[in-house]
Amino acid sequence: MQQQQPRSYQVVKAATAATAGGSMLVLSGLILAATVIMLTIATPLLVIFSPVLVPALITVGLLITGFLASGGFGIAAITVLSWIYR
């Protein structure tokens, strides 16, 4: 059977929870405001630089895909050669 907690302990617990919740709510609001401001600043830059960024990202993606495919084929070749050797 659980014991009844003193009323002062319950009040302190509620005040602590309200303080922590309120501060987290304020911080989340500040983070949301900063995100909106940064998105407002970054959007025109992304539109201006998109003719450069899009081909660059496509090129980087193709390079990464090529290196991963090359590594995969190399591992497959080593596996087949070791299987043949045994």
From TrEMBL:
**Under the cellular component aspect of Gene Ontology, which terms does the record hold?**
extracellular region; membrane; monolayer-surrounded lipid storage body
Residues making up the signal peptide according to the UniProt record: none
Where in or outside the cell it occurs: the entry states:
Lipid droplet; Membrane
Judging by the UniProt lineage, the source's domain of life is Eukaryota
Transmembrane regions: 21-46, 52-85
* Topological category with respect to the lipid bilayer: Multi-pass membrane protein
Q: Which family does it belong to?
A: Belongs to the oleosin family.
Protein name, entry field: Oleosin
